[in-house]
Amino acid sequence: MFNLGLEQLIENCKKQNTKAQGELYKLFSSKLFAICLKYSRNRMEAEDNLQDAFLIIFNKIEQFKNKGSFEGWLKRITVNTVLQRYRNEKVFELIKENTIEDVTVDIEEDTISIDYLLEIIQELPDRYRLIFNLYVLDGYSHKEIAKMLDINLGTSKSNLARARQILRQTIADFKIAQQSQSL
Length: 183
What we know:
Layout: H1 4-14, H2 18-39, H3 43-60, H4 70-89, H5 114-122, H6 126-137, H7 142-149, H8 153-182
Helix pairs in contact: 1-2, 2-3, 2-4, 3-4, 6-8, 7-8
């Protein structure tokens, strides 16, 4: 089930042992930072979100009962910490969009680098980026996303469709620019 060292580390964190908390931070901060970066607007915000997530983790570590994946528990807290920031900013409140048909994004691996793809996903407006990441990259359902973000199901679906539409257009523009450069 658990690595004995990890289990002891968790127990020491439950006792508010700052050395153990530092070790836990070292062990998981890079993975959790990648999550923060994916959902945040920029690196500075991601760093703030990581610190906030660890504060919550250390405050709630008593609630972890050594059942299920500890890393999964950490990731859930981290995602919820970032999403709470957007809920507080009411990113989704003013959006009233008509349902857009579902759009797929075709990516030819030889023309689009993963770095470019991640860059254009990061440039999506908050409401689209969050839902795209939750649905496409992390596999949450629209029902789960709606509950997490306190929005209705239709808003989740339309924001995903709009994100895909923007990405498709951005990729098409990129391909046209690439073709004109090669002429």
